[in-house]
Amino acid sequence: MVISGAKASGKLVSILNVHRQKQQKSIERISTGKKLFSDQPSSMILADTLLGSISATEQAIKNTEQNISLLQVADDAVANITPLLSYLKQVALRAANFAQDEDLGREINQEEIQLTIDAIDRLVKATSFGKRKLLDGSSGAAGIASGPYLEFVSANEKTSATEQTGSKVEVTQRATQSYVIGDEPITADKLEAGFTIHAMANNRTAQYKANETDTVVSFLRNLQTELDSEGLDLTADFSPKGELLLYSNQFGSKHEFQVSADKEEIISSSANKFVSSTPGADTQGSINGEKLIGDGQLLKGIKGSANADGLVLRYNYQNNDLGSTAPAEIDAGSVIIQQNALHFQTFPDERGDFYLSLDNLSVSNLGKTAINDSNFKSLKDIDVSTLKNAHSTIKVVEAAQDQVIGFRGKMGAAQKQGLESGLHYLLSAKGNMQAAETNISDVDYAEELINAIRSQLNTSATIWAMNQSFSQQGKVQNLLLNIDTIDSKS
């Protein structure tokens, strides 16, 4: 006789182990919320890759948010500088008023000027993000020029740093001023006969009527006063031969004007005929052989150029001989540039390199581009102790205002286009990657719970079957034992 119960029990044990393994995996999936690597190896590798990308993107988001905060700190400080510059201009205009007491009034104005300059300087020095200074030039491109007439004005994040020995600057043409020379010398007879001068520049007009009470000296002074009061940036003078000479106070080809007189042989051979100024010339030159574009006395790097992009220099050679430019190439000096622009890592890979140079807004660097009769180099030098200085101060302050406005515009563009738009992309990319990773690796709880219950029921049924199998085997064994006992007794 063959008893197959042991073989059947062995199969039940194998089935029980399978159901228990399934139940264990279901419990593990439910407890972690994730599928197991053994379920879909290739998909789980992709999910792990996505998790790494999500982690890098989260760090890029933190970087970008920190960078935005940095620019907001800088912009808040610049927003406080703007009204201080407006106040400086207000004081300078007040000092230029002829009704002002020339001694006490301008002395008080100068005290206000100095206090305001000190306030700007303190604000610049105090503005920082952590330990990094933001507005003193240490977070941007800095430079120094060596040469009798060469000055470093500015550079930005695109300007290449130079070697310690500097880069050679060559000038092929000096800047000149536009001018008009009258037809014949101004004499006492002409003044006694009387005539009217009309001048027009930048949509502003001025006129002065000479009469018999004028001397040659008073005529020139009164004409200059009229030009200044109407806001024409012109200087009235006499040529070496005595003709009336008017010239722009600004250098370059952009500052044209027109002059006429109501009598012939004053400005031209015809009366009431406007004569256009002889155009000024822009400085021309290069740095290390790389061409620079002239704008008055300024030399500017060409956008997109290899090394000089964003660089601004000034060749401050003032030639008293109007219209005369340098005929040949000359060595103007050299420039050393250090690049300390901020480096923002705004993407989770090398594409995220974003550079921004924060301008130097210290008072010694504001208003450097202003051409003025007092030869003020920057906002640091201004004073209003004389009428001439007050007018020069106005020009320097206006140049400083333009500089600050341009800097705020650059920061705003960098924040909106370079950082905030990138932040929106990063947040969107993070959400998409999280959704993809979830779709690949996350468990369907309802389905997995059903699987766990099914495995549990199958396990219970298998255990019951095994119990039944063992019970039948025991009965058969007892029966056989009883039969053997009966046979032995017989």
What does this structure look like?
This protein has 490 residues and is an alpha+beta fold. The protein has seven helices and 19 strands. It folds into three domains: 1-33 and 450-484; 41-137 and 343-442, Up-down Bundle (f41 fragment of flagellin, N-terminal domain); 178-276, Immunoglobulin-like (Sandwich). 46% of the residues lie in helices and 21% in strands. α1 packs antiparallel against α7, α2 (41-95) packs antiparallel against α3 (104-126) and α2 (41-95) packs antiparallel against α6. The longest helix is centred in the N-terminal third of the chain and has 55 residues, at 41-95. The model has no long low-confidence stretch (mean pLDDT 83).
Summary tags:
single chain; alpha+beta; f41 fragment of flagellin, N-terminal domain; Immunoglobulin-like; 8-stranded antiparallel β-sheet; 46% helix; elongated
Instruction: Trace the largest sheet across and list its strands.
Output: 3-17-5-13-14-15-16-4
Largest sheet: 8 strands, antiparallel
* Tally of separate domains: 3
Please write the CATH class name of the largest domain: Mainly Alpha
Structural class: alpha+beta
Estimate the global geometry from the Cα principal axes.
elongated
Give the number of helices.
7
Name the beta content range: 15-25%
Provide a short characterization of the protein structure.
With 490 residues, this protein is of the alpha+beta class. It contains 7 helices and 19 strands.
Secondary-structure blueprint:
Layout (H helix, E strand, L loop, with lengths): L4 H28 L8 H55 L8 H23 L1 E2 L2 E2 L7 E6 L3 E5 L12 E7 L3 E9 L2 H6 L1 E7 L2 E7 L5 H14 L4 E5 L4 E9 L6 E4 L13 E2 L7 E4 L2 E6 L2 E4 L10 E4 L14 E10 L2 E4 L7 E4 L30 H55 L3 H45 L1
Antiparallel strand pairs: 1-2, 3-17, 4-16, 5-13, 5-17, 6-10, 7-8, 7-11, 9-10, 11-12, 13-14, 14-15, 15-16, 18-19
Helix pairs in contact: 1-7, 2-3, 2-6
